[in-house]
Amino acid sequence: MAASGKLASFRLPPLPTVGELIKLYNLRAEKQLSQNFLLDLRLTDKLVRQAGSLKDAHVCEVGPGPGGLTRSILNAGAADLLVVEKDSRFIPGLKLLSEAAPGRMRIVHGDILTYRMDRGFPVNISKPWEGEPPNLHVIGNLPFNVSTLLIIKWLENMANRTGPFAYGRTRLTLTFQKEVAERLTASTNSKQRSRLSIMAQYLCTVRNCFTIPGRAFVPKPDVDVGIVHFTPLVQPQIQQPFQLVEKVVRNVFQFRRKYCHKGVGKLFPEACRIELTQEMMQKADVDPILRPTELTIPHFRALADAYAHLCTQEPSLLSYDFREELRRKHLAGRRNTPVDTFIDM
Ligand code: SAM
User: Fold this and answer.
1) Each residue's pLDDT tens digit, 273-313
2) Distance CA 173, CA 164 (A)
3) Which has the closest alpha carbon to 19: 10, 11, 29?
4) Can you tell me which atom of ligand 1 is nearest the CA of 34?
């Protein structure tokens, strides 16, 4: 009985429905901003449950919009909810919600891509990286282009223990276009295995929780939506700087249908490409005729370690970019082309 009494105290008092709020404040979804609202509170409750227990939790909700997901977070017992919303039209509706949950909800009118989350919460909620995750969660249903950009930025933050991860191993529960959710969680040999799979999985446990059909959103997007939950690992599976890992993974996957040595080769200047590629593959003990999608995280760890070793021997390799070499060659070729060649053409 006491437990249900406690639960009842989380619940919001009667409020206009999210649909009524949208009408009241004339909150038409902006197509250019890819705004698709989730108004079914059973679905927002289900999404919020994927984060785990929110009792007494600190939560950052990204892009609350008309506040459907926000209500579910408050009803789940969050003690301190910070919402970051870019579109000023939503602020009055969010204020109404915040008044219904006194002392539990803070509103930031700003851009999550630049917001300093490392300053948004009290320092004393931090937990040592090696311990349990802090009682801080990031939850959001963002436009697809923003959520992909954000997860790349947050993975880098995770590697450097900055941003939301200045407090410890903060957990994230976010929406993505279904295909992106599948890429984030794809295992070795699967068709969706990609750069995102490696970058996410070497740093965290990634779970593809469930899919929401596009028709559940208002207005309906052209695609279905996947909910993905991330828990940072105590020990990343690759112990090299994020930028270096990203460079190796990006190079390998740029020729995703070819043998992996082809992408690895592009890490090196043409003049020494064959020799250094061979050295790197041997040092890593990776079969050069595996395809990128066949490589496991330990394969990528061995490749990143071997590349880091070569870079300590020859530091200029780190800044080498084969596209830059191609561009220079192309320009030099044009400068050396005799003028009458153009006249003849
Ligand atoms: N959370 C609401 C829901 O589930 O119904 C709204 C979802 S809508 C797909 C995305 C929301 O993110 C919109 O309210 C939009 O204004 C907001 N948004 C878009 N880009 C943003 C950014 N860079 N920073 C903060 N909010 C952003």
Assistant:
1) 999 999 999 999 999 999 999 999 999 999 999 999 999 99
2) 13
3) 29
4) 9
Nearest CA to ligand 1 atom 22: 111
How large is the average pLDDT for residues 175-204?
97
Q: Among the atoms of ligand 1, which is closest to the Cα of residue 39?
A: 5
Tell which atom from ligand 1 comes closest to the C-alpha of 18: 5
Number of other residues whose CB lies within 10 A of the CB of residue 7: 13
Q: H or E element: which one contains 206? A: strand 204-212
- Tell me what percent of the chain is helix, strand and coil, each rounded to the nearest 5: 50, 15, 35
CA 143 to centroid of ligand 1, rounded, Å: 6
pTM of the model: 0.90
Ligand 1 — pocket residues by CB below 6 A? 33, 35-38, 62-66, 68-69, 84-87, 90, 111-113, 141-143, 146
Is the pLDDT at 29 greater than 90? The verdict is no
ipTM score of complex:
0.99
Contacts of 202 (CB under 8 A, 6+ apart): 236, 237, 238, 245, 297, 300, 301
